[in-house]
Amino acid sequence: MCINDLEINKEAKIVEINCDDILRNRLYSFGVIKDEKLVVTAKSIAKKTLEIKINQSKIALRSSEASKIKVEVC
Length: 74
Fold this sequence. Notes:
By secondary structure, the protein is of the alpha+beta class. It has one domain (3-73): Ferrous iron transport protein A (FeoA) (SH3 type barrels, Roll). It has 2 helices and 5 strands. The protein has helices at residues 21-29, 63-66; strands at 11-17, 37-43, 49-54, 57-62, 69-73. A 5-stranded antiparallel sheet has the order 4-3-2-1-5. A hairpin with a 5-residue loop joins strand 2 and strand 3 (49-54). The protein is globular, with a radius of gyration of 11 Å. The two termini are 12 Å apart.
């Protein structure tokens, strides 16, 4: 399952990140790494963007970026 499929306020663990090195480095700089836990805190009306909370940070991701991050519900 990818982050886009998560319901709001559900906790999940990152199991895989499938993207190019540029996006991977950007995600790593925000703390988006394998085995880290996150929560989807909000989605836009059109579901084009979503907000996730990881550690103590909130990050906005495009739907296309979120689809590259595979998670499993905790």
